[in-house]
User: What shape does this take?
Amino acid sequence: MLGATILNLRSGHAVSRSSLARLLGASASTLCLYAEQLIAEGYIKETGIEKASKGRPQRLLGLVPEVGWFAGIELNAQRIQIVAIDFAGKVITSKVCLLSSEPEASDVLKTLVAELETFVANQPSRLLGIGVGAPGLVDRKRGIGRYFSFIKNWKEIPIVELLKKHFKISVTLENNLRGIALAERWFGGGRDLKDYVILGPRSGFGLSIMHNGQLMHGAHEIAGEVGLWSWSWPQPGGEHALHDTLSATAIYRRVANISPEAPLPSDLGSALKELAQPGSPEWQRTVLDFARVIRTVQLIVDPEIFFLHGPLTALGPAFCEDIQSNVENLDPKLPNMQIKIVPSTLGDDAGALGAASLAMETWDPAP
Assistant: This one.
């Protein structure tokens, strides 16, 4: 209950003892006891008086930002990104470390530890927890990155054990796209939504699904791994996995008419925007296949919104609107069930913000 009290104050869904009591289904007297305990321990403070039209004025509550901070780390095939969030949920700072064109697992881990050491040394308050958003398949319970095809030798990597041993702090692991779903909840367009999907066409293609306010993982932690779907194109030898055809990198190489092994530009989003030709056959083919993916997912999980992440957000709202209109024309027709597709506003920080959100949500003041 103490942790839930802090989370609801941090989100702004509650601002006083009485609003906390209503949200948490507890008596006002019980919430007063929790609030007094958290005030005494220095986690929350009274911030003012809210005058009510009826009844007694409410004493407002807020978190103490200086209590400490949470580290969020996102790994992918191009970079390591670290972000610091204070106890009140505000971003303090962030850092990006670019990786080599063909990263190897051991080098990625060495770089991660070194960069995080520097990051911790530069923060004035204590580190409360670390969240990691890892690519590909993860085993959250064992704290292991199971497999990711775009980092060499990324198999059965004991991420949590490594970071716990080095930093002596709680470490929580999640798939990076699922972390991004948490970032949308805390920092983006998902604050008041319970059902939404993250579209993640980057070096691969995956989804994360927020259903009834909870991340969907599945029995084997592979919910949302749509990049592994078999996907057909109307051309000779057109049977591929979805991430071979609709990832941001695959789309760029196809539009640029370069080989699958050709190096990529450092700013893939800008490069895609420069090459994109709305209305061209390639644009329409890509849009239609995104629409097919989205309609299939809609029929399975029925979200309110799809948030597009990654380099394709550089194509702007027009890309999402074109996909949306194609979805509405697909069979089966679904009157009054139109889906909304929007480019996320979180940018490249989304994965690290999501990882920090994970650390923030799992932290508990109880010893």
User: Anything to note?
Assistant: The mean pLDDT is 90. The longest strand covers residues 79-86.
